[in-house]
Amino acid sequence: MLALSWAGGPAIAVLMILGVCKCVRTKNITREEYENQAGRPSLLSVWQMWTPARRPIIFADVPWTEALDHPGAFQMGFVRRLFDSRPFQKLVPCQTMVLDGPRSGAGKIRAARARDGSFAFVYSPAGEKFTVDQSVVKGARLKEIWYDPRYGVAREIHTGTSKAIQTYTPPNAGRGCDWILVLEDEAEKFPPPGPVR
Question: Rg of the chain over CA atoms, in angstroms?
Fold first, then answer.
């Protein structure tokens, strides 16, 4: 059983927010059920430092040295780039900002915002649309960015003075089409989280 909590610190919170390491809530779970929840089982091999000589903790099937060359390992670098571009240590869960969208299962929308209200991340693991309350971000002008954690590319959507309830539809949807919406106070002048397109 994978047991993680927000009390585990910012790094664990980051993984939980992104759904890369979704919690398994039952002890008796099949590999198929886990893969439907986790979406990236090869990363489990790396996190466990699994080798064929060891008993896997959770469904590892590729030696960790090989898993380092899988797409998910490179994608974690892109996710790190996003988090390093913002003071991610300030993040706290903020599911209350998500007003509509998937609330359970593999497509559950996850959200976190900086304690000081300078920015927020909203994660859509399957590219499904969702509605958020933008007022959780402070500042006179709100900047909206889509971040693609698969390729490390940022797409600026809009910057404006309106902070209201807004529905967002990610650029594409489906299994493996995850997106992170970045909402931030323009006055903070955060650097782009990746190449902007």
Answer: 17
Q: Residue type for 43, please?
A: L
Residue 6: predicted pLDDT: 35
| Residue position matching structure tokens 């610190």 | 9
**Domain segments of the chain: what residues?**
6-76, 88-188
> 160: part of which helix (H) or strand (E)?
strand 153-160
Could you read off the pLDDT of 44-80 as tens digits, one per residue?
555 667 777 877 777 777 777 777 777 777 788 888 8
Q: Decide: 167 and 100 in contact? Cβ < 8 Å.
A: yes
Q: Tell me the C-alpha distance between 179 and 127, whole Å.
A: 6
List % helix, strand, coil for the chain (3-state, nearest 5): 30, 25, 45
Q: CA–CA separation, 116 vs 149, rounded Å?
A: 25
165-168 and 142-148 beta bridge pairing: unpaired
CA distance 52 to 66: 12
- Residues in the chain, overall count: 197
CATH class, 88-188 region: mainly beta
